[in-house]
Amino acid sequence: MELAKQFRTMINKMQAYEYVFSLLGWDSNTEAPRESHKRRAEIMGVLSQELFALQTAKEYQDVVNQLYSEIDTLDDQLQREVKKAKKALDKVINIPMNEYVEYMQLGQLSQLVWEDAKQNNDYESFKGNLKQLIEFNKKFALYYAPEKDPYDTMLDDFEEGMTSKEYDAFFGQLKDELVPFVREVLKHPNHKYDSFINDSFDSKKQEQFCDYLIDVIQFDRNRGLMKKSVHPFTWNTSPEDVRFTTRYLENYVFSSIFAAIHELGHATYEQQISTEWDNTLLHGGTSMGIHESQSRFYENTIGRSLEFWKANLGKFKEIFPEQSKGIELEDMYQAVNRVEASLVRVEADELTYPMHIMLRYEIERMLMSGEASVDELPELWNDKMEEYLGIRPETDSDGVLQDVHWSGGMFGYFPTYALGSAYSAQIYYAMLKDLDLPKLIENNQLEKVNEWLKEKIHNFGSSKTPKELLLEVTGEEFNAKYYIKYLKEKYSELYL
Amino acid sequence: MELAKQFRTMINKMQAYEYVFSLLGWDSNTEAPRESHKRRAEIMGVLSQELFALQTAKEYQDVVNQLYSEIDTLDDQLQREVKKAKKALDKVINIPMNEYVEYMQLGQLSQLVWEDAKQNNDYESFKGNLKQLIEFNKKFALYYAPEKDPYDTMLDDFEEGMTSKEYDAFFGQLKDELVPFVREVLKHPNHKYDSFINDSFDSKKQEQFCDYLIDVIQFDRNRGLMKKSVHPFTWNTSPEDVRFTTRYLENYVFSSIFAAIHELGHATYEQQISTEWDNTLLHGGTSMGIHESQSRFYENTIGRSLEFWKANLGKFKEIFPEQSKGIELEDMYQAVNRVEASLVRVEADELTYPMHIMLRYEIERMLMSGEASVDELPELWNDKMEEYLGIRPETDSDGVLQDVHWSGGMFGYFPTYALGSAYSAQIYYAMLKDLDLPKLIENNQLEKVNEWLKEKIHNFGSSKTPKELLLEVTGEEFNAKYYIKYLKEKYSELYL
After folding, report:
1. Across residues A102-111, what is the average pLDDT?
2. CA distance A88 to chain B (A)
3. Is pLDDT above 90 for B46?
4. B228 plus B306 within the same structural domain
5. Which of A162, A409, B270, B327 has the most CB atoms around it within 10 Å of its CB?
6. Cβ–Cβ contact B36 with A under 8 A
7. Residue A69 confidence (pLDDT) above 90
8. How many folded domains does chain B comprise?
């Protein structure tokens, strides 16, 4: 098939540029010297023009549209690729060029404005940018799908097939069943281990423990590596090159440990994808939500379990003999599961975390429907924090300005964080039917867990949608009850 | 000027690709996981095709040829750029495409064949590739300049303006004046410090000392960084992003130290180039020889001086108290300047180093003129080693197979190593007229030395040729007598 071959060649060329942008990002986030940004920006300017020209070229449009017109005649894989390509194409080409350029410039500028605003606790200086970002995103969503609620288009961008109707149901359930439970738990604060948790832990030794965790999770060092960066992240260009970072805070050792396990979850997913999807549009994990389900599963279900510390407290004590003096298994289990109402999402514990997301989802929904304006945002934010967690930010830097997402025009991203955690619980209960998970964790036999996830999820790359995967793995559609059950069981036992 | 603008746009686009190849190389040489090579090779395949298409595009040829035809009307900077562009273009477009492709494949293959041959001490398996590489290079040189000795074309590729006539004179002088001196010094071997030199030094501590050297040399950390790799090298994409590596051998601490100072020489050169040459063909250091003059100057003239260790032995002893027990200033000076006949170029000391290069130059010359064939090469090599250094390799791995250069088709590269060292001595004596160098080194005031080099050499990037620079800096043309004088003075005092 000549057309399919042309399609493949074009896709591969674009992927080469994407690889390059990826590498530029990895370099700049992990080691590039401070003053290197100017030259890099020039290079990225030249290369983005090249890539944009490829993505919107008449020849490429013709190939995609032609294939799309005869989609029923294509094999399943190519069908899925062409649908993805068509969707991406339609999103871009319906935007007038001048608006596209204006939006790109706004996006770059807004990041800087947000950084300053956060640093100076000055929401007013960012408000105008935020308003423009919202308007552009609504407008672009309507160009693509005039008949659809723009927020639904955005939600689908980050998690294929999800709509506000479904998220409303999900967060509604959390609000009814989880909020009262969280408030109950918060009445029993546990500060017994505060001085241990915030003791001073040498960075080099933290690195040594995180390096040990690579082998515990059985991540393949020949196809990946660990480094450090300000914000932990996972990076991959193929299953044969998957890298992740963690960060070292001397007075909060759990930050590096759980960031490492979290990213190892993402990274294991990417390493276990079949290489057959390389050079296709079905490479990489299938969605934000499924990705997050894997990172949360490794971080929380495995990493914060009693069995995990049964297996690994010994090593921890060997590396940190002073700080861990008198810390026994049960102490460690309680310490890593300390629950407290906190202002900042990225520092939130497993139980209060979904509250932070629910708040963001509700606010995005109101902003997109016009029910709330950017003027009311700080108050709205603070009121909801008070409602769900009983605390009120004293500054906008610790409130509405804390996250980078909106300044980059990412609306509809946040809900995938909670969705991923909920997916993770549903997958966990399905796994329990096949595996004696506690035993495997306790014996550091995670190769069995990896294998199960590979066979059921990882292997497929993006060749299945999140909904298809979840149905196949768990035998039913998404159901938040598993998440609520998991959290209630675990934290009732720990706190009530 | 419309034409000049087109030229600039085209150059900038090509430079973006060169930046990318550079970054891919940096990544792959310093950290990329072992199994990442397959995906990277695919990406490089796609991008090299893109770059080659740009470099040979009809529109680009037209612009360069048009500008070249009116070169006298252009300003000095543009004249120099157009000459460079024209030369590079003519080198490529005169080669028939099929031969070019064949040569590229041969080059890639030969590297692997050489690696195996070196590992297995099997010159016979590499001989055929070497022969083909020589023939291709001669042929290509003749396509470009049919009237010129092909070896002269190659020499000019690595050091603009240098010819075999000039190198003959240079190496002839070394042969007459230096070989007898070296043989005399070698009669007084110094093994007093062998056990100190080859004592065990922890890698992490070596790294700490090398990190300290960054500040001694006053390399700007905001515009660069140090990392490690198997073979030390310097990497740069602009004066604002200059990186270098060193390597850590636990039983040879001088390896990391002098590799670091050597690369800091290259790196300081690149950092001190004016940013006005960014986005032009005059960016970066002007030639291999001038670059090597800077690295050798920092490594040997500064780093192996008595004054340098007067300033820095204290720090060394602080980091390595055990190993340096009883080592006083004079001991250290003698240890870092130990001279011995050795088989391997990259491990050679300052005095015997040029002998290794002389041998390679003479052999390249014979191979290119047809005076010697690849069949005779191992014998020829070993005979010359015996003649100049009085030792004979027992294996070809330690002889003719030791260096990577020829397997990559690089003929004419080696002589720039010795030339650079000789430039360095000539520049050194010029510097002594302006600066009290020993005092500055002793006081760790290298900012004054950097400043002098910046003003006289670094600043100009490639906007001056090596010959122009040398004449302006030292007031005379290249003269090997300074090099001979420098070596004789230093090593007479140490050894005779």
Report:
1. 91
2. 22
3. yes
4. yes
5. B270
6. yes
7. yes
8. 2
